[in-house]
Amino acid sequence: MMGRTFPSVRQGANHVADRWARSSKALKKEDREYGDELVKLAKTHASEAFVACDDPLEAATFSTMVEILKRQKKLEEQVNGRVDP
Q1: Residue 21 CB-density burial (10 A; 0-12 exposed, 13-18 middle, 19+ buried)
Q2: Does residue 27 belong to any structural domain of this protein?
Q3: What is the model's pLDDT at position 9?
Q4: pLDDT tens, 21-54?
Q5: How much is the mean pLDDT over the chain?
Q6: If you placed Cys at 41, which of 26, 60, 64, 85 could pair as Cys (CB 3.0 to 4.6 Å)?
């Protein structure tokens, strides 16, 4: 049977996010929500990252960083009075 002999980057990124989810469960209760949020962020842009990334961890990390930077910019704009909360 012909088929894929190794997981795609997309599948690999999902496995990374699944491992992060298990790690999140091991965190202290007050930190779990942040671990869970990272899992969500890892999947947000991972599809777009697959085009340029050949490493699943890189795709998941890239996706997470994009979302964190977007949130940071929005908060900075709110602090500077340029955007309504």
Answers
A1: middle
A2: yes
A3: 75
A4: 999 999 999 999 999 999 998 888 766 666 777 8
A5: 84
A6: 64
2 pLDDT above the threshold of 90: no
Residue 8 carries which side chain, given as an amino acid letter?
A: S
Q: What is the pLDDT of residue 43?
A: 82
Residues in the chain: 85
Compute the distance between CA of residue 5 and CA of residue 34 in angstroms, rounded to an integer.
34
The span from the first CA to the last CA of the chain, in angstroms, equals 55
Per DSSP, 66 falls in state: H
Answer yes or no: is 64 within a domain: yes
For residue 61, what are the domain limits?
9-79
59, burial (CB in 10 Å: exposed 0-12, middle 13-18, buried 19+): buried
In a domain, 2, yes or no: no
Domains in the chain: how many in total? 1
